[in-house]
Each structure stands twice: as C-alpha cells, then as structure tokens.
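Bumping with the actual sequence this time:
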Amino acid sequence: MRRLDTAPVCSAPPAARRGSRVRILDITKFYSAASGGVRTYLDSKIRAFQERGIDHALIIPGERDEQTVEGGTRVYRLAGPVITFSPHYRLLVSARAIERVLRIEQPDVIEVGSPFLVPWLVARAMRRAPVPTVGFYHSDLVRTFAEPLVPERAMAGLRLITRNAARSWVRTVYRRFDLTIAGSASVAADLRSLGVTNVRCVPLGVDLNVFAPDAREPPRLREALGIDDHRPIALYVGRFCAEKRLDVVVEAVTRLPDAERPHLLFVGGGPGKAWLEAMAAQLDHVSILPFVLDRLELATMYRNADFYIAAGPGETFGLAIAEAMACGLPVVAVNRGAAPDRVAGCPASELYRHGDAASCARAIQRIARKLSPEIRSAAARHSARVHSWDRTFDALIDLYEEVAGRGVRA
C-alpha cells in the first residue's frame, strides 16, 4: 500500500502496459465493509475483468489518499469525511484528486456509481480532457430516499414535493451521461419515464459456484435457533431501514394463524435494528442475526432457510433475490423495483402488493403450500439460467466499447 501523492505517474497509458481493448475507471462512494449490492458488483467486476484482461481502475473514498492493487485492479482511495448519518460510508470531495487519477489512468470510459456529489466532481475533473461517461443507477432515489423521508399520509403535500424533487434530480443527473445502465427492466422503464432516454438494462448476476444448492447442508441454523421442524424459516438479508418496508412483513406474519406463521429470520444491520429488536421481543418466532460478510457463510444461511422474503420496493438490483434462488430458495417478493424482473417466469415465487400486509400474508401462505424439493430445484434452475455474472460482464464490456467508440456525447 502506498500514498497516492507518492505513487509515480505512469510513463505509458494503461493500454500500452496491459494490452487491454478498453480501459475502464469506476468511481463511487457506495463502497465499504458494510456495503451490499454495489460492493458485491464491484468485487465481482474486479475478478471478471482480471480473467478477461480488461484494464480496470477504481476510485472510492477512504480515510487517507492511498493506492493499492487488488485482483489486478488499481484501487485509489481518496480521503473523505465520514457521512454522519451513515457512518460506514465516506464522501468523495476532491475534484483535484480525481483529476490526478484521470491523468494517471487515461481511461476510455468512466462509470459513475453515485448520484449525488460524485457526478459533479467527475465533470469538473474532466474539464481539460473529457472522457465518455456511463452512469450506473445503483439506487432508486425516489422509492429509497424520497418516499420514506415523508411517510405520513397527513403530509401528502410535502411527500409530493419531495418525490418530485427526487425525480427532477434523477432526470438532471442521468441525462448528462453518455449512457445510463439500469439493473432491471422496471428500473430502466422508470428512468425513461423521467426523460432519461439513453438507458440500457444489464441485470446483475451471482457467483453460481458459491450460491448453489447443497443437499448435504446440515440444518444447523434451525437447531441453533431452536426452531421447530414444522415451522418454515422465512429469511431476509439486507439493511434494516424504513425504505425496506420490513414493517409490512412483520404485520403480515401477525395476521396469520400461529400454525401458518413462519419463523422470521432477519440478517443484517442498520438504523432500524432497534425497532426490529423491539418487535422480536413482542412476537414469537422472530430472530435477528448480524450482517454476514463472508459469502460462503451467507450461502450456507440461504440453504438453511425455506423461503426468502424480498421486501424492499426500491431495489434496483435484487442481488439477494438472485443469491437466494441460486441456493434453491423460493421467493416472496414485493411487486415493485427489481424483484418482479428477478422472479419473472419462475414458479418458485409469489408477489404481493406494495405496502399491503394482507397481500403479503396471502403470498406467504401460497409459497408455504408449495414448499418441496421440486420447488427448490425450480428456483435454482431459474437462477442458473438467468443470473450469471458472465452474462452481466459480457454485456457491460460490449456497452463500454460502444460508448468509447462513439466518444463524448455531451
């Protein structure tokens, strides 16, 4: 590891050093030890690009300026302050530091993975030497940030103002890119409805070597938590926060007779943890476990459950859905965001209406009646067919080459 200001400026551009057909630079603030989909995407990209000989660099925030090489990717951590309300993340704040990395890397395409300050920093850093830019729409700003900000119906006017402001921001930011990438068809449609016309859909994949069924997996999670054999385990993995609408799931389960209630297992962390713990103290058949970073351990947890609950209406990737299905889990999912696209055409799934606890309860009942080895096999086959990282990165590389070939649009 070395400080960025002591790293030598390359005497030749990266293409000359490695012979790659296209040079890609990723930049995002959504990368930390506690990150979810964005970190999974970037870590998988690092491995895939190394295998394909694609020249790749990554800019993320850090405690100090430093450069490392991780799996063939040159990683630049630029010093930035901690975000007070989300302490696992830091901000990128220096256009000058970004410009310094651009001079070193000389990328053919820049992929911007943050919708707030980062696009403006990149634009400022490119004033002297513009580079084609791709915006990856990682977060549904309307459903994930704006709508939960004002949840009360009594404040409908303020809620409308907040939603419209978020929609305007998305339109302003993503129309500036030469190309915008969405992780699902529904998200791509949302962007086009906002006037972001140059959108391509590239669903993200999963590591099918890690996330796969294993009939030899012992039921140790059920034993460790003391869950009765007759009670199915309904698993959720992710952040505990208002925008994930876990309240709908909890209410749905309380509507079911005890004999039909699954054991709710929440795995993760976040600002909603205290609320979940309070609910767990009042209800039977609820467990909360901490965030799991190790992917092999996470795959084991999926295989130990009976079905997965995808509750977040603002999911742009639905990576946890794909991981769960790859391990053989049927899915109960909200009918918003990426979830419907992830489960489309698969019999091992049930959708419920956004915000409707009664609908969610009925979906849980329907999936519980389907539970069988055959339905688990159907989930795994569906994921193996459509949730491959190879499909994702082959499509991305084609798009990068297309964007690099036509140059800077705006």
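The tokens above came from a reply further down the thread. Residues 13 and 106 are 6 Å apart (CA to CA).
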